[in-house]
């Protein structure tokens, strides 16, 4: 893997290129850089979520996810390198099962709303989906390991579930339940 950053302003990217972890340079609009950038944005949004009041178990899980996303980004930065392990995907599957088991079944679509922490979790979910699309796009052009794609897919599902958990945790007093979409079907049923 390439050298760790020792200074931030190197000016080497002034020509529109950036360095990968293996020392090669690619244009800043390269599919690999777009995928890395989306993963970085997701990790940054998780940092915003972590600045909110959260249940301790959710906080611990999100911190672990941030580290795994850093591994995922590192893997993407070195073509052919494997850093994210299959057990990281398995851990997300376990968390999905655990948190989903505490929630009532959905009767309708929900809106990305409720408590501030739940709303931020929904933003993270949408960024995870974009990062997943970027990894899939990269994988169509170059060889990419399966784990990054699988991890982002599971993570977006988990973030949806965690948004529901955070609404019920009601740590800011503004939640308590899912915010349901008011469909025409529901409106007709209420008449």
Automatic annotation (TrEMBL):
Gene3D superfamilies: Cobalamin adenosyltransferase-like
Region annotation Disordered: where it falls in the sequence: 1-26
Reaction(s) catalysed by this chain's protein: 2 cob(II)alamin + AH2 + 2 ATP = 2 adenosylcob(III)alamin + 2 triphosphate + A + 2 H(+)
Known EC number: 2.5.1.-
Keyword match Lyase: no
Pfam families: Cob_adeno_trans
UniProt keyword annotations, A-Z: ATP-binding, Cobalamin biosynthesis, Nucleotide-binding, Transferase
InterPro entries referenced in this protein's UniProt entry, alphabetically: CblAdoTrfase-like, CblAdoTrfase-like_sf, PduO-typ
Residue ranges of domain Cobalamin adenosyltransferase-like in the record: 8-165
Class of this enzyme: transferase
Transmembrane segments: none
Record-linked NCBIfam families: PduO_Nterm
Family: Belongs to the Cob(I)alamin adenosyltransferase family.
Name the record gives this protein: Cobalamin adenosyltransferase
